[in-house]
Amino acid sequence: MNTEEPTTRPIPFTSAMVSAILKGEKTQTRRLAKEPPLAHPGAKKVEYSPWCSSDFNWLAKDFCGNVIGASEVDAFTPPKGLPGDRLWVREDWKLPAHLDSLSGRQVGETLYAPVYFVADGYKRRPLGMLNSSNDEVPCWACGWSDGESEPGRFRVGRFMPRWASRIVLELEGVALERLNGLTEANALEEGVSSATIENVERFGLRGWPVSEWQLTAVGAFKKLWDSINAKRQPWDSNPWVWAYRFRLLECEDVVIANG
CA nearest 79: which of 7, 181, 186? Predict the structure, then answer.
């Protein structure tokens, strides 16, 4: 656990994965990493754990348990943070139609507007401002006011500003590993599922057509990965990835920062 003040960084998720997070079905995510300068070239995985020192360095071990010195991994600090740090989620969203001509940032510079979240159709509206640690932050209520215009144009999640985000995650674990080292258990925690009767009833396989159902969760994750990363680093290239394990913070644990 990171004993320093936790940092908060943005992270985008598709609507299907946001839905899985909210249902407690997704607690891991994998993101492309640079090729690490490992002391042991055969290493397939690097686990990060805290090393108590005055400047809070990090040590890592490869899959054989060989220690990789902090100086060798300094340039590869997990870009999304260390255990204890937080991530605010960018997801697909909409604003009231009469604001369609404005960007989310422009709206946030002048007022806070009602937000519609595509993943589950949830709506919320600003009630006013609260003062928290001398920073004013928006106070939200469920639903939109009577007479509010209908949700407008679709807005891609990667452009969501901080003020509109509703989800904050806390990192519980970080690893640097080869993508193909993904296990069936890992794949299930990534929010995908295999094509069993039980999983079809529970997950609905995220709306995929029957022709694309997979017999294993790993197969489903491979298909999901390539749908996003095929042009850069497809599954078969077995790239290094950052594997993040996280938990969804309850509302009472979260103070939404202005910015």
Answer: 7
Full residue range of the structural domain in which residue 207 is found: 8-88+169-251
Helix (H) or strand (E) holding 141: strand 135-142
Same domain, 117 and 16: no
Q: What pLDDT, in 10s, does the model give residues 176-202? A: 788 998 999 999 899 887 654 445 545
Count of domains for the chain: 2
Distance between CA atoms of residues 85 and 65, nearest Å:
25
The encoded tokens of residue 94 equal 């909409």
Q: Is 181 helix (H, G, I), strand (E, B) or coil?
A: helix
Tell me whether strands 86-90 and 8-12 are parallel, antiparallel or unpaired: parallel
Residues 54-80 have a mean pLDDT of: 52
Q: Are residues 62 and 185 in the same domain?
A: yes
Phi, psi of 165 (to 5 degrees): -75, 145
For 37-122, list the strands marked E by DSSP: 45-50, 58-61, 67-68, 86-90, 93-94, 115-117
Residue 12 β-bridge partners: 90
- Confidence at residue 257, expressed as pLDDT on a 0 to 100 scale: 38
114 conformational bin, left if phi > 0, alpha if psi -120 to 50, beta if neither:
beta
- The verdict on 246 and 184 lying in the same domain is yes
Q: Is residue 121, in this structure, part of any structural domain at all?
A: yes
